[in-house]
Amino acid sequence: MGAARQHGERLERLVLGGLADLGKLREVVRLLLLDCAQDDVIDAVLVADELGTLGCEYGTQPVDVSVSRSYRRPALRIAVNSPYLGLPFSPSRSRTSRRVLEACAADWGIGNEHEGTTLWACVQLPSAVPEPDGQHFPEPRVSA
Question: Model confidence over 83-118: pLDDT tens digits?
Fold first, then answer.
């Protein structure tokens, strides 16, 4: 797992070797959203879990994942990349994935890139306060 920060964003990268690694992805999402309300965190974890599961179940492993947190326009972008990434064959599985993404993500898609296929989603974070200068990370939210 690596981290990078530039232009008001924080980027985490990790590799999933299988479904057993989904916990690492969930933890990365949670750590990037310490300043957000529980509803935003739940939506983001659901989306990350769905994308990670699709990558592990229907992609060639290992699966590369990037999670990017924008502080200027509060949002989280999750991208799963695999040399080959198919879609679920089962109509019910496909419907379930689509419902999760449409309910929790502001936008999502799938596309071919130079190193394979990428499935991505963007989750808006309405509870996060925008950081106009992007020079510091917000403090964790304290529960009452």
Answer: 988 776 666 777 888 889 999 999 999 888 777 899
User: Which residue in this structure is represented by tokens 């690596």?
Assistant: 2
Task: Report pTM.
Answer: 0.83
Query: 121: closest CA among 21, 46, 9?
Result: 46
DSSP label at 67?
E
Terminal-to-terminal C-alpha distance of the chain = 32
What mean pLDDT do residues 10-24 have?
A: 95
Domains of the chain, each with CATH number or no CATH: 2-124 (3.30.565.10)
Nearest CA among 88, 129, 132, 105 for reference residue 42: 105
Please list the alpha-helical segments (H only) found in the chain: 22-32, 38-58, 91-104
Calpha distance 68→125 (Å, rounded): 12
